[in-house]
Q: What sequence folds into this?
């Protein structure tokens, strides 16, 4: 279970990093980066539910 908790936390951290990149990227690239960050956050939320 600790592994799942750690992975969920790492996914959220990476999503935050990607959001920061998206803020400075051109619009189309930023949109793709934000979508990727949202997928990572969803994966983290799913991992928490399954623990």
A:
């Amino acid at each position: 279970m600790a592994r799942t908790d750690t992975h969920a936390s790492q996914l959220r951290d990476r999503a935050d990093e990607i959001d920061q990149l998206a803020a400075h990227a051109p619009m189309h690239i930023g949109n793709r980066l934000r979508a990727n960050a949202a997928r990572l956050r969803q994966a983290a939320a799913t991992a928490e539910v399954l623990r």
